[in-house]
Amino acid sequence: MRQFADVEGLSELVRDALGAGRRVVAVDRLRGGSKKGVYRVRLDGPRPESVIVYSWAEAENYWPSTQETDPADPLAPASGVVPFLTAQRALCSLGVRVPRVLLADDSRRRCPADFAVVEDISGGTLEALFESDPDRAAGALVDLAEMLGVMHRDRAQHYGRVDLLEQGAGVSELSCERRVLDRALRDLKEAAGRDDSIATADTALHDRLQELADRVSPRTEYGLIHGELGPDHVLVDADGHPVLIDIEDLMYFDIEWEHVFLQIRFHERYTTLARPGLDPQRLDLYMLAMRLSLVAGPLRLLDGDFPDRAFMQGVAEHNAKKALALLPSV
Fold it and tell me: Same domain for 306 and 192?
């Protein structure tokens, strides 16, 4: 049985962040997280009326442990307050809106896990706003496109996750496209062992990945990308502006990797986020690789006790069909 944060422990963290005069009146554990716990803590007294607490406790991480052999791999899972704070600083320096940090600590003195207390953005997710207030969502989407333009124009000569690069541990000799190909081949092998439709097309998918990778030309400059930017990872503040969350994977990488994920998650609304000048060869390779990742990842998550099992199974099945549709017609 997983033990999550309790009111007493969260109350102590919030008092440290806001002062001893604030009293916690309710705590809601928000759904959807798979690597960290996210709690809305409601308070009495003056503003703020609530804050968000992130907890990177082991019990909050539903992903099975993996043997990641390359510490410079930016596509490996990121978790903890260090990548979060590094990403937060990098985005703030560009003027990109993220929740304000009120308190963060990885010392394990206050509690037995990394945690952060951050501003609660009251407007909900962009994903929910698409349904409840399309006009407001459309304005936030335009602002998001501008925000992504700022990020993607921020260039680096090496790719890697921002916290690893800051520590001097993130520079890799492999190209981005080789990195993506290697991971896609591992995802393909794993997915083929769990999904019959992928297993049947294993050889064709392997050959297609290699063919697409062979078409990609070298590159030596990279843009800043979120790494997993769907409309559920964009909040909208009281002024209607987008606010990025789940930023721990922030990295310098081929911006085409971001754009294939944006295409998948924003569907027809992607046209607002599209930009000219993307490399079509990279887009082709990265789209197939991303689809395979979205098969293998959810099925791996289901090896454990992740609660929303039907949803994750649906994600895997949907992306298996999309991956197979990317094979050339015979």
Answer: yes
In Å, what is the CA distance from 6 to each residue of 33, 121, 125, 285, 293?
Answer: 17, 22, 25, 45, 34
Exposure class string for 267-298: b at 16+ Cβ within 10 A, else e? eebeeebeeeebbebbbbbbbbbbbbbbbbbb
Q: Which domain holds residue 282?
A: 126-325
Would you give the distance in Å from CA 102 to the centre of its chain? 22
Neighbours of 152 (CB within 10 A): 17
| pLDDT one-digit tens code per residue, 167-189 | 887 678 899 999 999 999 999 99
Domain end residue (candidates: 68, 87, 119): 119
In angstroms and rounded to an integer, the radius of gyration of the C-alpha atoms of the chain is 20
Q: How confident is the model at residue 3 (pLDDT cuts 50, 70, 90)?
A: confident
Distance CA 36, CA 56 (A): 5
Q: Which residues of 312-329 are buried (b: 16+ CB within 10 A; e: fewer)?
A: beebbeebbebbeeeeee
Domain count, the chain: 2
**184 Cβ partners below 8 Å, 6+ apart?**
209, 288, 289, 292, 293
Same domain, 81 and 164: no
Q: Take residue 87 and report the two structure tokens written for it.
A: 């990403």
- CA 248 – CA 85 distance, rounded (Å): 8
Q: Find the distance separating the first CA and the last CA of the chain, reported in whole Å.
A: 50
Query: Quick check: pTM over 0.85?
Result: yes
Strand partners, 156: 222
Quick check: is 1 in a domain? no
